[in-house]
Amino acid sequence: MRVPSHSNLEFLRERFDGRPFRVSDAVAAGVSRTTLHRLRATGELATVGRGVVQLPDGGMGLLSELAVVSARAPRGTICLNSALAFWDLSDEIPEQVHVAVPRGMHRPSIDQPATRVHVFDARTFAIERQQAHTDADEPFWIYSPERSVIDAMRMARWVGRDTALHALRRYIAQPRSDAARLAELARELGGSAQLRPALEALLS
Predict the structure, then answer these.
(1) CA distance between the termini of the chain
(2) What residue spans define the domains of the chain?
C-alpha cells in the first residue's frame, strides 16, 4: 500500500505520534524511500540517528537518545549506567547510551547517539524488562530499578565499583526499596556473591 503524497506528513505524524522511527518502518507502512529522502532534503523530516528520523515538531525531549536507540534496536533494553541515571540511582551523565541485546541476536552498530551494546544471557534477558517513556512520551525498553542495581553490582567492571555501590545505597534509602526482591533477583541473575556482602553491610 502506498500513501498518497499529499498526506505523507499527516500519515507519519499519526502513525508514529511524533516519536523517532526507522526509515524501514515507514517504508513498511507504505511511504516510499524516495518520498522520505525528499522530506529529509526539505527539512520536513529530521535525521536523529543512522536510519532513524523524526518530524521536527515531534518534541525531542530530554531523554530522546534512549528512544532513538530503542528505535534502532527494538529488542534491546536500556541497561547499566543509562538505566541507573534514568531511575535517579546515579548522578552520572553517561557519555554513551548503554543498551543490552540477548545473546544470539544480531548486535546492532549504533554511532549516533554514541552507544555501547552489551550482550546479556538470553535465558534471563526478559527478567524485569519494562517499557518507560521520555518526557516527550517517547517509549523505550529499560530494566527496572531493582535489576539495574543487580546488574551494576555483578558487572561493576563496566559500571564502576563506586557507581554500583552508590546505586545500591540510593536504592535502599528509598521508601519503597525491597531488599528481599534484590536478593531474589541476584539469585536469578547470578549476582548473589557481589550483592550479599554489600547489602548486609548496609542493613546491619
Answers:
(1) 64
(2) 8-58, 64-203
Write the single-letter amino acid at 29.
A
Using CA atoms, how far apart are residues 93 and 85, in angstroms rounded to an integer? 7
Please name the residues in contact with 37: beta carbons below 8 A apart, sequence gap of 6 or more: none
What does the pLDDT profile of the chain (204 residues) look like in tens digits?
445 444 788 888 888 876 778 888 888 988 888 788 778 767 778 776 667 888 876 554 445 788 889 988 999 999 999 999 999 999 888 889 999 999 999 898 888 888 999 999 999 999 999 999 876 677 899 999 999 999 999 999 999 999 999 999 999 999 999 999 999 999 999 999 999 999 999 987
What would the grid cell of residue 101 be? 541485546
Nearest-CA neighbor of 13 among 59, 47, 49?
A: 59
Q: Which three cell numbers stand for residue 196?
A: 550479599
Query: What residue type is 76 in one-letter code?
Result: G
Amino acid of residue 53: V
